[in-house]
Give the backbone structure.
Amino acid sequence: MSDAPTVVLLHGLARRRGSMAGLARALEAAGLATWAVDYPSRTDTIAAAAAAIADRLAAELPDRPLVAVTHSLGGILWRHLGDPRLRWQRGVMLAPPNQGSQIAAAFARHPLFRWFYGPAGQELAAPAAWPAPPAPCLVIAGTRRRALVNPTSWVSGRVFAPDAAHDGTVAVDEARLPGVERFETVDATHTTIMDDRATQALVVGYLRAA
């Protein structure tokens, strides 16, 4: 059995694994094997999605060392993946709403929000006592407030304080989590932070240093 870890890529809310394809290519070019799967982020609760992914990982990568690279909701999902069958070594969370989401809270009662973002969106609006990450990790937050590719950034000025650092969707302070090994910021918007070259360099460097 190889001791080289497999990088588990977990996409964000209302996204699919294809959103992580550019980052997957960067990781594979650095010699790191990747694994990704779509999960029903719009219809499952966080706990249900995590349980299904844990079962699949245990079946497809049994007893393999794993590292996680996640985007947004995917980071919260990873926090729920402390399954004893999974050998997590470390992880990287990109723009995770670790303290919950002010954007989600602002629109949580809107019927369109509730329909489109489902139970996981509601959970982000009112975070509970989510578990700690299952391994040491790097958190990377974005600071580019406005971007045409990020629709929530068009209304973020109504939600975040004028002096708040944010990526158009998640505030830097929302991404913070006590006890993480390392915290960084990049000049990137929430929607495409995984494709930012500075982000990719930080991810590869952190995982290679393991």
